[in-house]
Amino acid sequence: MNILSAADFNILPGSSNCYPTLIQQALKQIPEGSCLRFLPGTYNFLPGNAIPFSLRVSNSEQQDTLYGAVFGEGLHNITLDWQGSQLLFHEDLSPFVFLGCSNIQLQNVSVDWELPFSAEATVAHSSENRADIIIDPQRYPYRVHRGELLFAREDGTESPLFGVMEFDVHTRKVRPEAGDTFPKVTASPVGPGMVRLNGEFSTPPKSGNILVLRHGKRIHPGLLADHCSQFQVSAVTMHHCCGLGMLFQFCRGVTASQVVFSPSTGREIFSGHDDGLHFSNCSGHLLIEHCGFWGLMDDPINVHGTSVRILEISGPSSLRCGFIHPQSYGFSKWACPGDQISCLDRETLAPFGNMTVEHFQLLGEKEFLITFSEPLPSTLVVGDALENLTNTPSVTCCYNHFGSCRGRGMLVSKPQPVEIHHYLFESSGSAILIPGDANQWYESGACHQVSIHDNVFWECCTSQYQFCSGVISIEPEIPTPEKNTGFHENISVSNNTFISQGKSPCLYAKCCTGLSFCGNTIFSPQPDSPLLQQEYCSEVYQEENHLTLLATPGLSIQG
Amino acid sequence: MNILSAADFNILPGSSNCYPTLIQQALKQIPEGSCLRFLPGTYNFLPGNAIPFSLRVSNSEQQDTLYGAVFGEGLHNITLDWQGSQLLFHEDLSPFVFLGCSNIQLQNVSVDWELPFSAEATVAHSSENRADIIIDPQRYPYRVHRGELLFAREDGTESPLFGVMEFDVHTRKVRPEAGDTFPKVTASPVGPGMVRLNGEFSTPPKSGNILVLRHGKRIHPGLLADHCSQFQVSAVTMHHCCGLGMLFQFCRGVTASQVVFSPSTGREIFSGHDDGLHFSNCSGHLLIEHCGFWGLMDDPINVHGTSVRILEISGPSSLRCGFIHPQSYGFSKWACPGDQISCLDRETLAPFGNMTVEHFQLLGEKEFLITFSEPLPSTLVVGDALENLTNTPSVTCCYNHFGSCRGRGMLVSKPQPVEIHHYLFESSGSAILIPGDANQWYESGACHQVSIHDNVFWECCTSQYQFCSGVISIEPEIPTPEKNTGFHENISVSNNTFISQGKSPCLYAKCCTGLSFCGNTIFSPQPDSPLLQQEYCSEVYQEENHLTLLATPGLSIQG
Questions:
Q1: Is A430 exposed, middle or buried (0-12, 13-18, 19+ CB in 10 A)?
Q2: Radius of gyration in angstroms for the set of CA atoms belonging to chain B, rounded to a whole number
Q3: Which of A252, B76, B339, B529 could join B524 via S-S bond, C-beta 3.0 to 4.6 A?
C-alpha cells in the first residue's frame, strides 16, 4: 500500500477552517491504493469552508444544500488512517461524506462537537404539572423565550427543545416505564441555571434524575456513504453527531468494526443525536462486529429498505409509483435496470410477482415511473406496494454491546439471511425488532432467515416505544394479519440468556411461520414470566427453554 | 404414594411449642413410602420443645447439644410436602434435621425468623475513624455496652457484633472494593437509633449505604442432613437461618431444585447467616438446578471434603492421623471399611498411593487410627495428608442465579466430574473458586474434570476476599507450586459471557494441567482487559475468545 502523509498536503493537527478544502484536494490527488495517514492530534475544524453538496438523505430531514468536512467522491481503494486523532466540530455538518466510492477504509479517529445538539439537565423538583430543572448555562447556553426553551448555536442561531428523555441518575439508563412518555412542555425561567417545564406529567420526572434535552435537526449524519461499495469503518468513536450516526444508503458491502458511540468526558448520558448505524437500501453483506453503543437518542442499528406505493398502472409492464415517507423522497436510484422487484399486497403484505426492472425515471420528488421486462402480475392493484429485492443485504452482527440508549436496539427487515449473535443487549426498548410494513413507514419487507443465538439480553424492554411488545419483537403491521400468518419466515431464537423483568415476553411474534424458540435460559423475578407470546403464527417450535427465578429481596417460592 | 395429612397428627397451622414433638412422633409412625402433607399456612414454632441431639457439624461452631424443629432419624422413602407453608422460628435451632435417612423429599416451604441473627443499618455519616449508623431498634433491638454493640435475642440473651459488610444502597451489592475490609470497631451510643462505630476506616462507609451487622453464632444449619442418601429438596425458600443454609455431610446423592435464599419482605439485604448449600464429604451425584441465592453472608455453594494430617506411622499399614481444622473435629465416620484413600505430599500436594480402609477408630475428638488392606507407600512421611476418595461426589450445577452475596460464588474441589453451566453469576468475589490445600483449611483435593460453560458472569470479583484472583479462580495453596504444575487437571472454561470491570482476569489458574479457555465472549471497559492469567500451568489452550469494549461514558477507541 502506498502510504502518504496528510502533513505533506498541509493538513496538520491544530485549528483551521481550511481542513475540508485541503482534505478534498488531497483525496483528489492521491492515487488508488493509497493510505492517507494523518498525524495524530486534535483537528479543530473551525467554521467555514465545509464542502457543500446536494443529496437526498434517508431517514433525515431534507435540506437543499448539505455540508461535509471530510469529503470524498468517486474514490477507489483509499484508506484514511487518522492514527487516533480527535476531530472537533462547530457546525451542523457531516464529518465524513463519501459518494460513489469503493473500497474505502476509515479508521482510528474520534469525533465530537464543542457545543452539542443535545443538552443535559438535572431534575430539581417536580409535580404533576411542572418540573424545575437545572441546566449548566456554560456547557449548554440557553434562554427561555415566549414559552420556548432555546439553545444557542455557535453560528448565533437558536435551536428549540423538541423532546425530553429521562434517565435514572444511578443506572444512567432510561427510567423504566419512562420511554417516550415525556409530555409536550412549555418553558418558563425560574432563576439562573434553572428552568421550569410546564406540562401534564403522568409520571413526574424524579428529583436527581438526568434529562436529555433534545434539540437540533436531524440533517447531517456523522458519516454519510451513498452508493459506495466495500466500505470499512474501524476503530471510530462518535462522541456526538448532529443527525444519524453513520448512514449507509444504496451501498453494497459494509464492515463496521470497533465503532463506538459514547458520551465524551463531561457529559453524563448522550452521545449521538439519533440512530447509530443506519443502513437504507443497501446490498451485499453487512458485517458489524465488536461495536459499542451507549447514549444514542434513537436505535443503535437499523437495517431496512424503502418500499413504495403503486399509484397507477400506466401500461402492461409499467407503473407510476410514489415515495410515501417524506424522508425517502427523491431517491433517484431507488431501482436500476436489472433489479428484482416484488409486489406486496397492501392488505396482507403477502409478496407476489418477481419482476426485472427495465427502466426507472423520477417524476419530480415524490413519484417515479418504472417499467419491467415482464408483464405485471394480474392480481396487482393500485395501492399495493413494491419492494426492491436487489437492494437487500445479508447481515452478520456479532460481539456488539448495546448499552443505555433511547429506543429499540437492532431493527432489521430484509429477506437475505440475518445472523445476530454474541451480543450484550441492555436496550430500554425491544432489543431486536423485526418490523414489516407498507402502510406507515414504508421501510420494510419480510425476513426469510434470521438466526438470533448466544446473546445476553439484560433487562431489556423496560420502557415504551413504538413496536416493543417483547424483548425480541417480530411485529409487522399487517392490516389483515389473519390472512398472512407467514409474513416473516424461519426465525430462530436459540441458546440466548434473558435476564428479564418478568413483564415483557422474551419473544413476541406476529405473522411468522417457522418460528423456533429453543435452548434459551431465562432468569426472571416472576415464576409465570411470559417467554413466547405469538399471534397469527404457524409452525412454532419451543423446547429446552429453562426459566430460573432471579433471587431478589422478597422472593419466595414454594412450588 | 401413601398420602397422609399432618392434620391427623394434630399438626395444624397456627402457633405452638409442640410442633417439634408432634412432627417427630408423626415421622416415627408413618410407613415408608408415605407423603406427609401439611395444611398450607403459617406454622409459628414457639420456643421450647425443640428436639435435642448431638452431632459434629461440619464448618460450624461445635456445641454439645444441638436442636432441631423438624427432626427425622432413620427415615426411608418419605416426602414432606408443606404445600407452601411458612415456618417461623424464634430460637437458635435447625429447622430441618435428617440423620441416617434415605430417599427423603422436602418440598414447598419457606423459613424465617421473627428476630434474625443479623441486623441492618444505614450509614448516616462517616470519617476515617468513625461511622454513625442508624439502626431500627424495633426491628433489631440492641444496646451498646462497654464498647460492644449487643443485639437482643428472644431468649433474653445478647449477641455481640462480630463483622460488618457494606452494601451499595442503589445496587444492593457489596460496595466495590469493600469486601472483607471493614475494620474491627468499638461502639458508642449517639442517640436513639444511632450508634457510633469507632475504628480505623481505610475506606469510610458511604452515607446512605446499608451495613449488614453480623452477630449470632454459626451453630445450626437451616437444614442438616447427615449420612443420608438420595436426598431431594425442592421449592424451599430460606429467608434466614442462624448458620449455614443447608448442610449435607457424608451424604450420598443430593438434588436441590428451586431452592431460594432471599431476604424476607422488610429486610433490605441479608438472607442466610453464612453459606447457602454446603456439601461436606458427600458422595454420589449432586444436582443443583434452578436455585437462587441473594443476600447470603458467605459463599452460596461449597462442595468439599476434609483432608487430615498424618501424625504418626503406627504400623506397616496403620497411621495415626489428626483433624486439623476445629470445624472437622470428631467426624466419627471420616472413613469406613472399603473406602479408597489417597495420600497428598504436603509440599507439592501431589497425590500418591491408593489404599483401601480396613479399620477406622476415633481417638478422642481430634485424632484417629486408620488401618489399610495394603502396606503404606514407602514415600509417605509424617506431615503428609490423607484424602478420602470415596467421599467425593460428581456435581452438576445449572440454571442457577448467584445474586448479591458476600464472598465467593461456587467453591468446588473434588476429583469426580464437575459441570457448571447456564448460571447467572453476580458474585462480589470470585464467581467460581477451585481451591486445594492440605495446609490451612484441610478441605480440598484436586479436581480432575471440570467443565464451566454457557454461563454469564456479570461484574463479578469486585471485592476482596480470600482466594479471589480472578472471576474464576483456580487457586490451590501449594507450598512448592513449581513442583506440581498439574495439581488440578482438565478444566475447561468455554462459551461463557463475561461482563467484566476490566480489573480481575476472567480466569486465574495456578498449578493446572490441561486448561482450556475457549470460545468465551468478554465485554470490558478496558481494551487490555486481562482474560487469562496463569502460573505454574501446563497444556494451556486459548482460542476463539472475543473481547468487545463495553460502551460507557468517556470510552474512546482509536485503534
A1: buried
A2: 24
A3: B529
Q: Residue A61's CB: how many other CB atoms inside 10 A?
A: 12
Contact of A83 with A110, CB cutoff 8 Å = no
* Least Cα separation, residue A291 to chain B (angstroms): 7
**Residue A319, exposed/middle/buried by CB under 10 A (0-12, 13-18, 19+)?**
buried
- Residues B20 and B71: their CA atoms lie apart, in Å, by 7
| Model confidence pLDDT, tens digit, residues B508-523 | 999 999 999 999 999 9
B521 touches chain A (CB under 8 A): yes
Which position has the grid cell 437495517? A303
- 3-state secondary structure (DSSP) of residue A27: helix
Q: What is the number of alpha carbons within 13 Å of residue A161 lying toward its C-beta?
A: 30
B424 touches chain A (CB under 8 A): yes
Whether B336 shows a pLDDT value over 80: the answer reads yes
Instruction: Please state the pTM of the whole predicted model.
Output: 0.95
d(Cα B478, Cα A65) in Å, to the nearest integer? 72
pLDDT in tens, B133-188: 999 999 999 999 999 999 999 999 999 999 999 999 999 999 998 888 899 999 99
- Strand bridging mode A308-315 / A385-388: antiparallel
Tell me if B258 and A559 make a contact (CB, 8 A cut-off): yes
- Selection from A118, A207, A114 nearest residue A161 by Cα: A118
User: Would you call A50 helix, strand, or coil by DSSP?
Assistant: coil
Inspect the interface and report whether the beta carbons of A552 and B454 lie closer than 8 Å: no
B554 pLDDT above the threshold of 90: no
pLDDT at A559: 54
Contact of B272 with chain A, judged by CB distance below 8 Å, is answered with: no
DSSP state string for A51-115: EEE----TTS---SSEEEEEEEES-EEEEEEEEEEEEEE-SSSEEEEEES-EEEEEEEEEEEESS
Average pLDDT over all residues of chain B: 95
Give tens-digit pLDDT for B369-412: 999 999 999 999 999 999 999 999 999 999 999 999 999 999 99
- Maximum Cα–Cα distance for chain B, whole Å? 75
Query: Which H or E run includes B150?
Result: strand B148-152
Q: What is the pLDDT of residue A529?
A: 85
Weakly modelled stretches of chain A, pLDDT under 50? none
Q: How far is CA B522 from CA A268, A499, B401, B525, B527, in A?
A: 25, 17, 19, 10, 10
CA A377 to chain centre: 34
Are A403 and B550 a contacting pair at CB < 8 A?
A: yes
Closest CA to A266 of B508, B293, B553: B553
Q: Does B552 touch chain A (CB under 8 A)?
A: yes
Q: Which of A85, A497, A546 is facing B456, going by the closest CB pair?
A: A497
Distance from CA of A391 to the nearest CA of B (A): 30
Q: In this complex, do A552 and B403 lie within 8 Å of one another by their Cβ atoms?
A: yes
For B210-231, letters b (16+ CB in 10 Å) and e give bbbbbbbebbbbbbbbbbbbbb
Asked if A546 reaches chain B (Cβ–Cβ under 8 Å), the answer is yes
B172 contact A CB<8A: yes
The 3-state DSSP class for residue B257 equals strand
Interface check B403 vs A, CB under 8 A: yes
Quick one: pLDDT at residue B559? 54
Q: What does the block give as the cell for A460?
A: 431489556
Check CB contact of B454 with chain A, cutoff 8 Å.
Answer: yes
Within 8 A by CB and 6+ apart from A346, the residues are A309, A383, A384, A385, A438, A439, A479
Answer for the pair B522, B549: CB distance below 8 angstroms, yes or no. Answer: no
Q: Is B497–A497 a contact, with Cβ atoms under 8 angstroms apart?
A: yes
User: CB–CB of B293 and A523 under 8 A?
Assistant: no
Eight-state DSSP code of residue B26: H
